[in-house]
Amino acid sequence: AGRQELRTRVTNDVARLAQRAAIQELSSALVIAAVISAAVFHRRWRPILTASVISVAVLAGLGAVAASTYRVAAFDQPSFTGTLTRAREVVATIQRSQDALDAARSRYEIATRRFSDLLALVARQEQSTVGGDDTAILHVSDVHANPIGLEIAQELAREFQVDAVIDTGDLASSILDTGELSTLAAPIDRGLARSVQRIGIPYYFVRGNHDSPQLLAALARAANVQILDGTGTFIAGIEVVGWPDPTFSTRPVAGEDKANERRLVGERDVRPAVLDQDPDLLAVHDERLAEASYGAVPLVLAGHTHARDMKDVDGTRILTVGSTGATGVNSFAVEADLDHEAQILYFRGDDLRAVDYVSVRRLGSDFNLERRTFDDAA
Q1: pLDDT by residue (tens digit) across 335-361?
Q2: Reduced to 3 DSSP states, what percent helix, strand and coil does the chain have, rounded to the nearest 5?
Q3: Of the given ranges (15-19, 42-46, 280-284), which has the lowest mean pLDDT?
Q4: 339-348 and 309-313 strand pairing
Q5: What is the predicted pLDDT for the residue at 105?
Q6: What residue spans of 42-99 are helical by DSSP H?
Q7: What is the reported pLDDT for 92?
Q8: What angle do CA 251, 256, 259 make, to 5 degrees?
Q9: Cα–Cα distance measured from residue 145 to residue 362, given in angstroms and rounded to the nearest whole number
Q10: From CA 13, how far away is CA 31, in angstroms rounded?
Q11: In the chain, N or C: fewer CB atoms in 10 Å?
Q12: Which residues pair with 316 in a beta bridge?
């Protein structure tokens, strides 16, 4: 319908515009040719008239060529240059997944009911290392502009009664931050900030490689958000340092170059800050930013890989969470078995006592919860 409307407007409007422009051009050509030839031939009327007629004839010939080669039908198969070369694939993605969000929401309602059953089961557990006085922190990452990911984060924060959320980055989409297309993400950024504010508890954000300055500015205006940019903060007595990813770019950058830059910043900037502030927890988007700090900080939280990982290196425990947004909005356009993942960390004082790892399979399936305890007796 849009293409047909464009063709109709082109047919009607351009024809009138062309006629008006042709009259103006021919009149201008006649006047300008007469003035110039009069200056050259000094009021010799025959060469003045000849030059004027020739100029009008040449311009009329050019107009005739343009009219004979002009085809309205060419608008049915447009070609794009510059930023618009990406328009076709963006529109195609939206068309393929136009009903996906509504379907995902209906499946999410089913998952929420199952989630309530899961919580009741957890509450009945008699043996637990987690007490009511512990501090609970929800760790999310790599939402990638998926609104369902933020809804799950809000539900987890409410049902598990967490004290704060730590987001280790890539809240933004990964398909609209290339070149000038990044400007199209501004409304999405504002929507993400509003969703984060609705979570309603302190939300500590560490920039990922897809998070633009515009997104950070939108988040900073949310009342419950604190951007962690290398300075320390306290969450219920737990000192946290968050270091932003240094590799955001609207142009393609090789993965190995990004990895090298992260390790360089980790050695040059992150480790000295950790040694100076001596935090209980270091939050980064990519684990490689923290590698130089292993042994100097008890706990590292990371994301980026879209895969779960847990390991101990030189006395540092590294917890990497999968994608809370199930790799983002692009997941609506593909058939894949993707999980929304998050983890809840329980601290007694500044000691990590347990982790609940939660995954939601395909939004219409079951919630899985795995508890890992770290106290010596368990």
Answers
A1: 456 788 999 999 999 999 999 999 886
A2: 50, 20, 30
A3: 42-46
A4: unpaired
A5: 63
A6: 45-69, 87-96
A7: 65
A8: 95
A9: 17
A10: 27
A11: N
A12: 313
